[in-house]
Write a structure and sequence with these properties.
Layout: E1 19-20, H1 53-71, H2 76-87, E2 97-98, E3 104-108, E4 117-121, H3 123-127, E5 134-138, H4 139-146, E6 150-157, E7 164-171, E8 177-183, E9 188-189, E10 195-199, E11 202-207, E12 210-214, E13 230-235, E14 244-248, E15 255-262, E16 268-276, E17 282-288, E18 291-294, E19 301-307, E20 310-315, E21 329-333, H5 334-339, E22 346-350, E23 356-363, E24 368-374, E25 377-386, E26 389-394, E27 402-408, E28 414-420, E29 427-432, E30 438-443, E31 453-461, E32 467-475, E33 486-489, H6 504-511, E34 516-520, H7 530-534, H8 541-557, E35 566-571, H9 573-584, E36 591-595, H10 614-617, H11 623-632, H12 634-637, E37 647-652, H13 661-672, E38 677-682, H14 693-712
Parallel strand pairs: 1-14, 33-34, 33-35, 35-36, 36-37, 37-38
Antiparallel strand pairs: 2-3, 3-4, 4-5, 6-7, 7-8, 8-9, 8-10, 11-12, 12-13, 13-14, 15-16, 16-17, 17-18, 19-20, 20-21, 21-22, 23-24, 24-25, 25-26, 27-28, 28-29, 29-30, 31-32, 32-34
């Protein structure tokens, strides 16, 4: 799912007064339907108790039926072994991040270190074929010593040294996490240090002895979406009960989160509370000793970076009164903004064309670096700020690839960049944003024979005439007779872009065995900037699905494949897409893999973190929005007597974001209507549906066995 950009700061000493946000006036005048009325006659409401005895017994019984079918296939053992070999390969290239202590850090999992190692090396060692790694924290050993089911979720370290870190640990992969202070010099948790008990929470370092934290401070003190709306400062040695409130949103918000802007020396330049009024709309409040001040920024905008005194903001809606457009990247002089938060002037950094978008933004010591998409193909630009404003130069990276901006050194102009494609293994580059010098440091080994396939880009025409691009990765010798086993993947939501990327497992388990792979860049994503996303929101949701059906039909019309040989796959919001495809256009497909899906859209706002997504789908409690949702809601639109293909539905018990009830209900309802269904619920894994590489290999082998049975046999 799309990650919210959390964000900002104002003075080196932090505020003493609490400033409660004023509630926004209701935008709707319709009488709301009581939540208790939505889906009240659903016979499967008991499945919403994540680890309820009845629900768990049902899930285990489903696993006991499904696993023998798929694991009993003669191909399963070989596919799982190949997937696991790729995932556990010793010659995988480890991605690294710069640390302030001069080292490079990495998190690594393999067959021996199942839960993983947090480790470090030097740049000189990393350049060699066999780097020497030093373990910082062994998650397997930690889990064993504490008799815990820990899944590592990252570490946030205090600049500029990055030696004091808050390590985030999840029980089984849940979004709710425990956060504990760790010292990388002693390689141990700090005795009496900061510790945030399990919860859905966000934090930011203010200084060595102070955290700014958003969490459930008192029972029930969370938004309808289950996230924090109260920010407090926590001092070293203080119990959480003594934390001092500095900002408060409302229960009606999605969340309130802290964000700190620092210069390249680690000095705090501004503190901001992000008040998420919807998933995509947020107020940005500058926090000072005198209280909070709301910044004059559009609700649909996100603070991206701070460099050479400039705060950089991405606009996700038009800002007509300032002369800016959706997709523009603009900057503010931060000192001027702090002096006059409501009248500071913005400067244009970048205005993408209709086919472009600013996909990623990062900084080095004095440069702003932007990864671009141009017709869903990557490029990177380096921006410099001077007396005449912003100027840019291109980084000469390989064309027709996806470009990913990695960690930057902050103390100088270096940053890591990744380059990848459907048939090109990822390469890791060290770029100097000052000199524009590029050094290819690492190249991932090939995991499958890519010589047999080619990549093409086509366009389909949606129902309203919009051109929808899609990539086809196909065997060179494929006959356009409709016989090619084809897997179509899409997402279509939350401004998430589907860009070219190398998957060794997909290539080995699908392409190398003669399969064709397709990725559709449908509306709802971010491939062409925020407007491409907005075009598929709420009342326009059906356009997302129409785009997907247009690509499906175009594949059939071009005779690349046929309904008999066409399968589709999608997860989370993409799982909802799969459910809509099942209920609206089942005749187009012979296989559907539904991963960790949304499915019951009438009750979605009451399940998991669903209330946070009404900005994407609409509110089922508002009758006019419910009417739109009801037309595409897969759960209520499942009907008897249809030609549904046998679907494969996957979820995780530990998914506390989307919630496994969606998948459970889908399978139960299909079975009730008399349809065959394959269902697998991993007991661990969180929203990723797997907590370690062995579980990932099993999941992927199950998927490709299912697809082979349906599309290749």
């Amino acid at each position: 799912m799309r990650c919210l950009v959390l964000a900002l700061l104002a003075s080196t000493s932090l505020m003493t007064a609490s400033n409660a946000a004023e509630p926004t006036a209701p935008a709707k005048t319709e009488a709301l339907t009581p939540l208790s009325e939505l889906g009240k006659n659903d016979p499967y409401l008991w499945m919403e108790e994540i680890e309820g005895t009845r629900a768990m017994d049902w899930a285990r019984a489903q696993n006991a039926k499904t696993l023998p079918v798929l694991q009993g296939d003669a191909r399963y053992g070989d596919l799982e072994a190949k997937a696991l070999a790729i995932l556990n390969a010793k010659d995988r290239v480890p991605g690294v991040s710069f640390a302030g202590d001069g080292t490079l850090r990495n998190f690594w999992q393999d067959a021996i270190h199942v839960r993983g190692l947090w480790r470090k090396t030097t740049l000189d060692s990393y350049r060699t074929a066999d780097p020497v790694w030093e373990t910082i924290l062994d998650i397997d050993a930690l889990s064993k010593s504490e008799n815990a089911n820990w899944v590592y979720k990252g570490a946030g370290c205090l600049p500029p040294e990055d030696t004091r870190c808050m390590v985030t640990l999840s029980n089984g992969g849940k979004d709710a996490v425990t956060v504990r202070e760790f010292d990388t010099t002693t390689k141990s948790f700090v005795a009496g240090g900061f510790e945030l008990p399990e919860g859905k929470q966000d934090y930011a370092w203010l200084d060595r002895d102070t955290l700014l934290v958003g969490r459930e401070w008192e029972p029930g003190q969370v938004t309808k979406s289950g996230y924090a709306y109260v920010l407090k400062t926590v001092k070293r040695g203080q119990p959480l009960s003594a934390a001092k409130e500095v900002y408060r949103g409302t229960k009606a918000d999605v969340s309130v989160s802290p964000f700190v802007l620092r210069d390249s020396d680690g000095k705090v330049q501004a503190v901001i509370a992000y008040r998420g009024v919807t998933f995509f709309e947020s107020e940005k409040h500058l926090l000072t000793d005198a209280g909070s001040v709301k910044l004059d920024l559009p609700l649909k905008s996100s603070i991206q970076a701070y460099v050479v005194g400039q705060m950089v903001v991405l606009l996700e809606q038009d800002w007509a009164e300032k002369g800016f457009k959706t997709g523009d990247l603009v900057s503010f002089d931060l000192a001027a903004l702090k002096a006059a938060p409501t009248t500071a002037k913005a400067t244009l950094v970048l205005r993408p064309t209709a086919k472009q978008s600013a996909e990623q933004v990062t900084t080095t010591r004095t440069k702003l670096v932007v990864a671009m998409l141009d017709n869903v193909k990557g490029a990177a630009k380096v921006f410099s700020h001077g007396p005449k404003g912003w100027s840019s130069q291109d980084l000469a990276l390989p064309a027709n690839s996806a470009i990913g901006l990695g960690s930057s050194a902050e103390k100088d102009e270096r940053l890591f960049v990744t380059v990848t494609g459907y048939l090109a293994p990822s390469t890791f580059w060290l770029a100097d944003a000052g000199s524009l010098k590029l050094e290819q440091v690492k190249a991932s080994p090939a995991r499958f024979d890519a010589s047999t396939h080619v990549v093409e880009q086509f366009e389909a025409t949606s129902t309203d005439g919009t051109k929808i691009p899609y990539f086809v990765v196909r065997p060179k010798g494929v006959k356009y007779d409709g016989s090619a086993p084809t897997l179509l993947y899409a997402y279509g939501g939350f401004q998430v872009s589907m860009t070219p990327g190398y998957s060794g497992v997909m290539g080995k388990l699908w392409l190398e065995r003669g399969g064709t792979y397709v990725v559709a860049n449908i509306r709802g994503g971010g491939e062409f900037g925020p407007a491409w996303h907005t075009a598929g929101l709420k009342e326009n949701r059906q356009k997302v699905y129409d785009d997907f059906f247009a690509v499906s039909q175009d594949l059939i019309d071009r005779r690349i494949t046929s309904p008999r040989r066409l399968g589709i796959m999608g997860g989370s919001n993409g799982g909802l897409l799969m459910g809509v495809a099942l209920t609206q256009k089942p005749q187009l497909y012979n296989a559907i893999v539904v991963q960790v899906p949304l499915f019951d859209m009438i009750r979605y706002s009451q399940i998991g973190a669903g209330a946070s997504w009404v900005g994407e789908y609409g509110d089922p409690a508002i009758p006019s929005e419910n009417a739109v949702i009801a037309k595409y809601d897969p759960y209520s639109n499942l009907k008897a007597g249809q030609k549904y293909p046998e679907v494969f539905i996957e979820t995780s018990t530990k998914d506390d974001r989307v919630h496994p009830a969606h998948a459970r209900k889908a399978a139960a309802r299909l079975e009730e209507l008399g349809y065959p269904v394959l269902y697998y619920e991993n007991i661990d894994g969180g929203h990723a549906a797997s907590a370690n590489l062995a579980e990932t290999a099993r999941q992927q082998a199950l998927e490709y066995v299912y697809l082979s049975r349906k599309l290749m046999d």
